[in-house]
Design a protein that fits this description.
The chain has 55 residues and is of the alpha+beta class. The protein is 31% helix and 15% strand. The protein has two helices and two strands.
Length: 55
């Protein structure tokens, strides 16, 4: 681990799939991360609904 990695402070905005993968990758290198999320609880996160066209 380099000195930069040992002292790095990483903030991730949002907790979507890409941010979670980034956090896991950084954690494997010993770098801690902090998440900032708009919603207080994951249960109130917006849900997308896919509407398929009718044949």
């Amino acid at each position: 681990m380099t000195q930069i990695e040992a002292t790095a402070k990483i903030a991730l905005v949002g907790s979507g799939p890409a941010a979670l993968v980034a956090a896991i990758t950084l954690a494997r290198r010993g770098i801690r991360t902090t998440f900032f999320e708009r919603d207080a609880h994951p249960e109130v996160a917006p849900v997308s609904i896919r509407i398929a066209p009718t044949p």
